Amino acid sequence: MSRVQNDVSQLQELLTGGVLNLLVNVISLVGIVIVMISMNPRLALITLSVVPVLGIIVVIWQQYARRAFIRVRQAIAEVNDRLQEGISGVRVTQSLNREDVNYEQFDDVNKAHYDANLNAIRLQALMQPTVQVMTGIAYGLLIIFGGQQVLAETMQPGVLIGFILYIQRFFEPVMALTMEYTQLQRAMASGARIFELLDVEPEIQDEPDAIELPRIEGEIDFDHVHFSYLPGLEVLHDIDLTVKPGETVAIVGRTGAGKSSMMNLLARLYELEDNGGKITVDDYDVREVTQQSLRQQIGIVPQDAFLFSGTVEDNIRYGNMEATREDVVKAAQTVGVHDFINTMEEGYDSQVGERGGNLSAGQRQLVCLARAILTDPPILVLDEATSSVDTNAERIMQESLKQLSRNRTCIIIAHRLSTVTHADRIIALESGAIIEEGTHQELLDKKGLYYSMFGAMSTPGLESPDN
Ligand SMILES: Nc1ncnc2c1ncn2[C@@H]1O[C@H](COP(=O)(O)OP(=O)(O)O)[C@@H](O)[C@H]1O
Ligand SMILES: [Mg+2]
Questions:
Q1: CA of 257 to the centre of ligand 1 (A)
Q2: Which atom, in ligand 1's list, is nearest to the CA of 413?
Q3: What domains, with CATH codes, occur in the chain?
């Protein structure tokens, strides 16, 4: 964010004032040099001999300056980062009494920015006196050599006076150009950071010959899938799973077992390695279709319900802009959030606030669920999507889900027994491998992982010990 905001405005400063000034200064410099040389070439060369010296100084200076300017950009980014984190995490900070620690940490970062800036400004300020010293030396050379020629009567005094005036005019644009140059150096530091950002290639790209996935039946196949986020740390081991169209499959497993990872791969939010097996939907490899057409047909309700600032209606309609108000209301009714929305001051036109801050976690989940349903996907994935709603709300949803799952494939990841018992099949995942598979009753009889997670409670509807 810092690159997009601060670095771009740094460039803007250069482009708005700088470029025109640069042009004006270069033209007057060239003009003055031509006039001086035509008046007295020898004297002109002697006085202008300070210019290469200045050039050398600038080249050396630039190496330090560039480093200092880049450091300033990094430091301001860190300040922004801390500030943003501090503000969005203020509740956690307050509840853990971390204000003082955070304040001190912010102070350090802030101080680092201050120091970096001070250093950069010192370097920048060095240029003006340097140019002034050079101007002084040029005057000195002029008086000594020009004065001798006048005394020897080989040059008219008027030429010497003309030179003195021109030297003055000469160093004005030089001074201005050096100032421009420091500005340019600052802008280049920013430019480099902006281009780094622009040059980032998305890791996941459509194949050149990717096809549009036609409307699918909803078959899903994980074919010996291995996957790791970080090299050498495999989180999914040899996952082999076929889900028939229209089937409802529940995936259970402890936190960190790899349930969400499986779904990320299905929607191709992460990429499988070439030797990591294959994932297909209706026999189309997810890597061979366009990401857009794939994701259009997979509705994922994620673990962390994310709402965007805007109205409730905007948020439900997020994935399907063509939906009418009636469609939106119907989706909300289906997931059982309609009554709640009506109690809000402006109903569907109520603002949800930044990240949905005006709603409870459970309400946010329900809105996200309505959002997914509105896109009417052939594959619906609920990734612990109801973990924060109460059992009553969940029961309402269960009913509607039964209807919804009739004509689509459903994958339900849940920690509560009540959510998974009605599934056609239950998959138990442990440390990235499928260890059990069967119906609710079969798995209970097996007395394995599923039994240990849920077995203690034989009555459906009760919460699992995990919760
Ligand atoms: N973006 C990521 N980068 C690195 N490791 C990850 C990432 N996301 C998840 N993991 C790791 O993968 C494993 C499975 O995570 P996940 O699929 O989210 O589990 P869960 O079954 O709780 O949904 C965990 O050990 C987790 O630490
Ligand atoms: Mg998860």
A1: 8
A2: 23
A3: 2-198 (1.20.1560.10), 220-455 (3.40.50.300)
